[in-house]
């Protein structure tokens, strides 16, 4: 498996630059095509919740619509400038998309790519709507590379921690991460097991070796910290620049329900996260 098509969310804010740079560097390294995506708001759909608009004179409403359209175009062009500058700097082949900023539109788009690069929470430009990386991972059927606001090193995935618990989600995340794991200098597989289950796994070790990986298996039986904190501690001690983990949870109505470790790390990522469901 490899990543041939990579999608990255970019908006008009400077905080998009480290994410665009990380995605462009990865695309250039893997010889993949990179597509930047801007999430646009629909003014009438978003704004008509304000009842006062219904009483505006037609000419005033038209002027407001045109002003908002110009602001959306300006934001989109600013985002495109950030994206294209980073793609050129990295030497990555690139495309540009503008899609509706509703969750399902973006998730549907992400299903057409091998990897989506996303912030923990993406704000839709000029809108109150936002979309979480967890929602994209739960809905898209593919891996999501979450880049924290501080960015990621150009040689991302030199030191990787795989959070393993033997579940379907863990196995899916491991498989989705092969293109990055195969290039890593160090791979550490962490099993958090306070009650002693899930010790050193010979089949897992052999599976990794069959993929050319000599991974270090770590079993942490700590009782005095949450699994999320234990994972954070190992990331810091190992100086890891990527965590591979399954996302546990489901979207219910309009509220996203996540498992404890997923919520912990996605709310404040200690480094880049490769998440999958």
UniProtKB/TrEMBL annotation:
Say which domain of life the source belongs to: Bacteria
CDD domains hit by this protein = USP-like
| Residue ranges annotated for the UspA domain, each copy included | 158-275
A matching Pfam family: Usp
Family named by the database record = Belongs to the universal stress protein A family.
Q: What is this protein called?
A: Universal stress protein
Give the species.
Phenylobacterium ferrooxidans
């Amino acid at each position: 498996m490899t990543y041939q098509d990579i999608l990255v969310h970019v908006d008009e804010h400077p905080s998009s630059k480290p994410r665009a740079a990380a995605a462009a560097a990865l695309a250039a390294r893997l010889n993949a095509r990179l597509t930047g995506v801007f999430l646009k708001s629909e003014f009438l759909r978003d704004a008509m919740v304000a009842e006062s608009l219904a009483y505006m004179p037609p000419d005033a409403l038209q002027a407001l619509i045109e002003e908002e359209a110009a602001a959306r175009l300006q934001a989109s062009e600013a985002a495109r400038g950030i994206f294209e500058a980073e793609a050129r700097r990295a030497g990555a082949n690139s495309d540009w998309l503008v899609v509706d900023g509703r969750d399902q539109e973006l998730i549907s788009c992400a299903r057409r790519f091998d990897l989506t690069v996303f912030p923990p929470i993406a704000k839709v430009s000029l809108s109150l709507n936002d979309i979480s990386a967890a929602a994209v991972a739960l809905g898209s059927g593919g891996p999501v590379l979450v880049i924290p606001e501080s960015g990621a090193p150009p040689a991302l995935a030199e030191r990787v921690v795989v959070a393993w618990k033997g579940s379907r989600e863990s196995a899916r995340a491991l498989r989705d991460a092969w293109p990055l794991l195969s290039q890593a200098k160090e791979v550490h597989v962490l099993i958090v097991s306070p009650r002693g289950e899930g010790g050193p796994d010979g089949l897992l070790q052999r599976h990794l070796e069959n993929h050319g990986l000599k991974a270090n298996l770590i079993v942490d039986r700590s009782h005095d910290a949450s699994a999320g904190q234990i994972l954070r501690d190992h990331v810091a001690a190992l100086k890891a620049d990527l965590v591979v983990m399954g996302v546990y949870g489901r979207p219910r109505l309009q509220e996203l329900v996540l498992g404890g470790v997923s919520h912990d790390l996605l709310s404040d990522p200690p480094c880049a996260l490769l998440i999958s469901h």
